[in-house]
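Hi U.,

Before I forget, here's the chain from the pilot set. I'm dumping it here mostly so it's searchable later in email.
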Amino acid sequence: MTDNQHQQEQAAVRGLLLAVSEEFGHPTAPEWEKALEAVPRHRFLPERIWLRNEDGILTARAIQDDPDGWFAAAYANDPVVTQVNDGKDPGDDPWPSSSASAPSIVVQMLEMLELRAGMTVLEVGTGTGWNSALLSHRLGEQNVASIEVDPEVTARARTALTAAGLTPEVVCGDGRRGWAVRAPFDRIEATCSVTRVPGAWVEQTKPGGVILTPWDNPWVCWGLLRLTVGENGSAEGMFSPYSAFMLMRGQRTDLRIYRDVVHDEHVPDESHTDLPAHEIAEEPWDAAFTIGMRLGNVWQAWDEDPDVEGVARRLWLATTDTKSWAAVDDCGPDTPGFTVWQHGERRLWDELAAAHAWWLAHGEPGPERFGVTVSASGDHTFWLDSPGSPLSDL
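Structure:
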């Protein structure tokens, strides 16, 4: 590396540290500042990355074609997509399947782990290997294990880590199962979101240990969950806001309204509502998180051009088991209210309206007021403010 390259790299790292500190509103903790300086982010990115253009479409950017743009993306406080379509040819429809998270959320999660010398950590979702490198710098590579489901991503991360002079254990496998070979761990950190905390993670964490994972439910992907494992083998903790990660591959669903949910033989019930249906479905993050908590396995989809006479816009609601659905039609400014169609075991529009009313009645809570207890058998009990107030009773 030339002196000029080294100076450019150090300037980029300092700029990134400044951006992260500004995001937090306080300086980065010294141990993580040293780690970011020791393992520069750009060394863990592939030569081809994917960035969104002005229209929000992912476009490839290769270091060979645009070295300055590639390097600038490496040191922006933004996520960088490093793989699309699980490594397959994306054609005209690229969608992200692996990425380097925004540095600020990376550091935030590392600080939330409250690491101490000698602790052991399992990372679920190796990705580029940069987070493993930061953990290795802080704890020593012998105390870090990482598991990644994608063989290509695993191999690339190992190569980047080796080039950086670091050799934590990197395993290719299903992160839902954890890594029993090295268990129990003081900390388990997931860098992908989950809709349920795998029981293996609880089993493989020491009593008093911490599990930190991004959270997802079918309604909205938003929030972090920090659990502490108790002596009885259960785990308990609360959510916090401000994160959105790709869903763990083993928990993905691929559902489409007309292919999987709505069928010609369905005869839905018709009703009318004067509630601002589409506004409720587009409420800000705090409301969306609460609605997701209340509805469980319900997702939404929008049809901006439903090709139905007299309908300007349609909101679809459906359960992930495809047994129930609802459609809420906006018939334009000249028609007051909304037409509601509901089919199946659950009345999903009624549930959505009730969930929104519950959110208002309980002081418009955000993620930080919700928590969950995960039993030793894997059951999840969600609660508001304290474990003594389960959502099922409120």
